[in-house]
Design goal:
Layout (H helix, E strand, L loop, with lengths): L8 E4 L18 H11 L7 H12 L7 H8 L11 H4 L3 E5 L5 E5 L3 H7 L10 E4 L6
Parallel strand pairs: 1-4
Antiparallel strand pairs: 1-2, 2-3
Length: 138
């Protein structure tokens, strides 16, 4: 796993977010819309954070699919923003859960699943570390 991957962690919506529920990012071509599309179109707990961050970057930079395995290690040699900085949790009301294997699922603010994870418990009752998306302002 790469340094951007989370394990048994729930990233809650940022404390300064105006979101009251999960909203699908409407602006096509944004990082948030690409992340949401990737996570919501696949079965929950398919991708790791590193998969999402790399794939969104590669898609936005037109990196050919056949060269992506070669580019992956070079990409992760430098620093990268983690999912706590994503607009999914800062603006759009989505919490992001990483299971024990580091695989992700998104949960809308205000749902029972979000509430359970924010209270520190996964679907199977095991504990999860709870953190928050970064604030938009200081």
């Amino acid at each position: 796993m790469e340094l951007v991957d989370y394990v048994s962690t729930f990233i809650c919506v940022a404390p300064d977010s105006a979101a009251v529920g999960g909203t699908v990012p409407a602006a096509e071509g944004t990082v948030a819309s690409a992340m949401y599309e990737m996570l919501s179109s696949a079965p929950p707990y398919t991708y790791r954070s590193s998969d999402v961050i790399f794939t969104v970057w590669a898609d936005r930079n037109d990196v050919p699919a056949e060269t992506r395995p070669e580019v992956w290690p070079t990409f992760f040699q430098g620093p990268h923003a983690c999912l706590r900085s994503s607009d999914l949790g800062k603006k759009f009301g989505w919490g992001i859960h990483a299971d024990a294997d580091g695989r992700l699922a998104v949960y809308a603010l205000g749902t029972p699943e979000y509430a359970a994870l924010a209270a520190g418990f996964s679907r199977d009752g095991s504990p999860v570390k709870v953190t928050r998306a970064f604030r938009s302002g200081r």
